[in-house]
Specification:
666 residues; 3-stranded antiparallel β-sheet; mainly beta; rod-shaped; EGF-like domain-containing protein; Dev_Signal_Modulators; 21% strand
Length: 666
C-alpha cells in the first residue's frame, strides 16, 4: 500500500513539473507584443510608437489636435493639444477618433462644412481661404498673388464652404440666378454693387523688370451702379430654398420688378424697364410661367380704359397666338417673317366687315416702278428654291410654271396702253410643240361668238371688225380678207360675196370643175375671159365684155333662148348708144348702119327664085324712108345686086339654104 502512495505522489510531481515548464515559456512576452512591438530579455514588450498604451502593445493612441475648449494655462493662453481635439472618443483598438456630429478630421480637429457644401463647392480651412482668396496687398501696392497668413489657434479647425460660382449660402445650396450676368459671385466672393477700394488688389509677382514695378488702383465716379442685395431689399430671402418672398407690389425672382404701379401723375411713365448697361445682353422683359402652354390664360393684356388693345395668349398648340383687338399691327423697320412647320396656312388675311369695300391685302412701295428698265418685285414666290411667280412694281407678272387659270364668272381682261407693244402675245417656245397655241372652248348650245374683234377709233364707239361664231362661221365686217400667200381653200359651203363683187388682180380665176353660174347682173370682164372647159352659163343678167372682146376657142357660138316672150333679140350690137345691128329671136337681122359686105362665095348657090330675093323688100324691118336711107349709099348699085342674081352660077357654086337665108335676112 505504501508503494502505491509513493507512485501516485511521483506522478503528481511529474505533472507539476510539466505545467511549470509550460508557464515559463508563455511568460516570455505577453501576446507576443500583439505584433506591434519587440519582446525583450526581461519578457517585456517594447511597443511601437502610438501602441504603448498596453503592456502587450494591443492599444493604439488616437491623433491629437488643438482642443476646441480646455482650461487656460495663462492669460489668453489655451487650446492645448488634446486627444481627438476634445470633440471625439478614441477607439484604442484601432487608434481612431469617433468624432461628434459636426466635426471631422483624423483628430476631429476641423469643423465640418454644412451638408458638405451640397455638391456645389469645396470645404476649406480658414488658413487656406486666407492664403488663396484673401487680399493680396493694400490698395495701390503691387502684391505677390498670395493672401495673408492666418495663424490663430482655429486656422486649421474652422472650415467654410467656397461655393462654385453661381451658388451661395452656408452650404452652397442656393443658386444665384440674377447676379451672374454682372460678374460671378458666391458666398465668400461678393459685393453689394459698389465694392470698396480695399476689395481690389494687384498681383505683380510674375512681372520681371529691372525697375521696381508698382500698381495703382483708384476710385472713379460711376453713375450706373447696380445694387447687389438679397431680394433687392424688396423682399425676404429664404436661405433654405434660395427663393425670395417679395413685398407687396414687387415681383420677380429677386423682387426687382414692380408688380403694380399706381401713378396719379399725368405726365409720368406708368412703368419703365430700362437696362442701363452699355454692354447689356440680357432679356429686358421675360415672361415665364410654370404652367404649360394652354389657351386659358394670357401672357399679356393691354387695355385702354375698358377697350382691349392687345392680348397675347398661348393656345394648346403652344404657338404663341397673338391677338390684336384694335389698331392693327405696324412694323416700321425690320420687316416681318412668318414661319412654322405645321400643316396649316402660314398667313391668313380675312375681314369680317359685311360692308367691306377696301383691299384685303395691299402691297405698297415708296419707290416708283423702274419700268421699262429692270424693275424690283412686289411679290416673289418660290417653292423650295424653284421660282413660282413674281409681280414686279410695274404690275408685270411672271408665272414660271403651271400657267394661269381663271375659273368662274368674270373671265379675263387685258388692257395695254403702250403704243408699240402687243396687247397679247402667245408663244409656244418648245421646239417639239405639237398641241394648240390658242384653244378656245365653250359649252353653251345657244348662239354665241367664239371670237369678236372690235376697234374703238372713236372713244366709246366700238367698230366691229370680225366675229367667229360658235358654228365656226367667220364674218368680216370691216377690211375684208387678204391672203398674202398660200391661197384659200374652201372644202364645202362655197364662197358667197354679198356686195362689191370679186376682184382678182392677177392669175385669173381657175374653176376646175362645176363651171361658174351668175344668177343676176351678168359677168363683167374688163380684160378678157378664157373658159378652158365646161363652158360658161349666164342664167340671168347677161354677160358684158367691156374690152378685149369675146373669143370662142373651140366650137361655135350657140345662142339658146328659153324665154316665153315673143319679142327679144339674140344679138344687139351698138357703138356707144348708137345701134349697129340686131338679130331678133325670129332670126331677123337688121343692119342699122354700114350696110352688108359679103364675099362672092356666099352666092355660089343662089336662091331658087328671084322672087325670094325680092321678097326682102316686101316686109322691110324699118319704115320705107329708113329702108331707102340704107340704100342712099349702097355698097353696090341695085342693078349690080340684081345682076348677081340674074347670073346663074353652076350648080356646084350655088349657096346653101343656110347661106341663102342668112343673106336674105330671114
Amino acid at each position: 500500500m505504501a508503494r502505491g502512495r509513493h507512485g501516485v505522489l511521483g506522478l503528481l510531481l511529474l505533472l507539476l513539473s510539466v505545467l511549470v515548464l509550460v508557464q515559463v515559456v508563455d511568460a516570455a512576452c505577453a501576446n507576443f507584443c500583439s505584433g506591434h512591438g519587440r519582446c525583450g530579455t526581461s519578457n517585456q514588450c517594447t511597443c511601437d510608437p502610438d501602441w504603448a498604451l498596453a503592456p502587450d502593445c494591443s492599444l493604439r493612441k488616437c491623433p491629437t489636435g488643438v482642443a476646441w475648449s480646455d482650461k487656460a494655462k495663462a492669460p489668453n493662453v489655451a487650446h492645448a493639444n488634446a486627444e481627438c481635439s476634445n470633440r471625439g472618443v478614441c477607439d484604442y483598438s484601432k487608434g481612431e477618433c469617433t468624432c461628434f456630429n459636426g466635426f471631422t478630421g483624423a483628430a476631429c480637429q476641423r469643423l465640418r462644412c454644412p451638408s458638405d457644401c451640397s455638391g456645389h463647392g469645396l470645404c476649406y480651412s480658414s488658413a487656406t481661404l486666407a492664403l488663396q482668396y484673401g487680399p493680396d496687398s493694400s490698395p495701390g501696392v503691387g502684391g505677390d498673388g498670395v493672401g495673408p497668413v492666418y495663424t490663430n489657434w482655429e486656422k486649421d479647425s474652422m472650415s467654410s464652404c467656397l461655393c462654385d460660382m453661381g451658388y451661395t449660402g452656408p452650404d452652397c445650396s442656393q443658386p444665384f440666378k440674377e447676379w451672374t450676368h454682372l460678374g460671378a459671385e458666391n458666398n465668400l466672393l461678393y459685393h453689394t454693387g459698389n465694392p470698396a477700394l480695399s476689395s481690389f488688389t494687384c498681383d505683380i509677382s510674375l512681372i520681371t523688370s529691372a525697375n521696381s514695378p508698382t500698381c495703382a488702383i483708384a476710385d472713379v465716379v460711376a453713375t450706373n451702379v447696380i445694387e447687389h442685395t438679397y431680394c433687392s431689399n424688396r423682399g425676404l430671402c429664404s436661405f433654405s430654398s434660395g427663393q425670395c418672398i417679395c413685398y407687396a407690389d414687387f415681383k420677380g425672382m429677386d423682387c426687382n420688378q414692380p408688380s403694380n404701379v399706381p401713378d396719379s401723375i399725368d405726365d409720368n411713365d406708368g412703368f419703365v424697364i430700362n437696362p442701363m448697361g452699355l454692354t447689356y445682353i440680357g432679356t429686358v422683359l421675360h415672361l415665364k410661367t410654370a404652367k404649360g402652354s394652354q389657351a386659358d390664360f394670357y401672357f399679356m393684356k393691354i387695355e385702354s380704359s375698358t377697350l382691349q388693345i392687345l392680348t397675347m395668349n398661348v393656345d394648346i398648340r403652344g404657338d404663341g397666338l397673338t391677338t390684336i383687338q384694335t389698331g392693327g399691327l405696324a412694323v416700321v423697320t425690320g420687316g416681318a417673317t412668318i414661319s412654322h412647320d405645321l400643316d396649316a396656312a402660314s398667313l391668313t388675311v380675312s375681314n369680317a366687315n359685311t360692308g367691306f369695300s377696301q383691299a384685303i391685302l395691299k402691297v405698297i412701295s415708296t419707290r416708283a416702278s423702274q419700268f421699262p428698265a429692270a424693275d424690283f418685285k412686289l411679290i416673289d414666290a418660290s417653292a423650295g428654291s424653284v421660282p413660282a411667280f413674281s409681280v414686279e412694281a410695274s404690275g408685270k407678272t411672271t408665272i414660271a410654271n403651271g400657267g394661269l387659270i381663271v375659273n368662274g364668272i368674270g373671265g379675263g381682261e387685258i388692257f395695254n396702253s403702250a403704243t408699240s407693244a402687243a396687247a397679247l402675245s402667245v408663244s409656244a417656245t418648245s421646239m417639239s410643240f405639237v398641241s394648240d397655241a390658242v384653244l378656245i372652248k365653250t359649252f353653251s348650245s345657244s348662239t354665241h361668238n367664239l371670237v369678236k374683234a372690235t376697234v374703238e377709233a372713236i372713244a366709246g364707239v366700238p367698230i366691229n371688225l370680225f366675229t367667229i361664231a360658235n358654228t365656226g362661221r367667220t364674218t368680216i365686217t370691216q377690211g375684208g380678207l387678204s391672203v398674202t400667200a398660200g391661197g384659200a381653200t374652201i372644202v364645202a359651203g362655197g364662197l358667197h360675196v354679198g356686195t362689191a363683187g370679186q376682184t382678182i388682180d392677177s392669175g385669173g380665176l381657175h374653176i376646175q370643175n362645176g363651171g361658174e353660174t351668175i344668177d343676176s347682173w351678168g359677168l363683167n370682164v374688163i380684160d378678157g375671159a378664157t373658159v378652158t372647159a365646161g363652158g360658161l352659163t349666164v342664167t340671168a343678167g347677161g354677160a358684158t365684155v367691156t374690152a378685149g372682146g369675146l373669143t370662142v376657142t373651140n366650137g361655135v357660138l350657140s345662142l339658146t333662148a328659153v324665154s316665153t316672150t315673143t319679142t327679144y333679140s339674140f344679138i344687139n350690137a351698138k357703138v356707144g348708144s348708137t345701134p349697129v345691128f340686131t338679130v331678133a329671136n325670129t332670126g331677123k337681122t337688121t343692119i342699122a348702119a354700114g350696110g352688108l359686105v359679103e364675099s362672092l362665095s356666099l352666092l355660089a348657090e343662089p336662091p331658087s327664085l328671084l322672087a325670094d330675093s325680092l321678097s326682102l323688100l316686101e316686109e322691110p324691118p324699118l319704115p320705107l324712108v329708113d329702108s331707102l336711107s340704107l340704100l342712099e349709099e349702097p355698097p353696090l348699085p341695085l342693078v349690080d345686086s340684081l345682076s348677081l342674081l340674074a347670073e346663074l352660077p353652076s350648080p356646084e357654086q350655088q349657096p346653101s339654104e343656110r347661106q341663102r337665108r342668112y343673106l336674105l335676112g330671114v
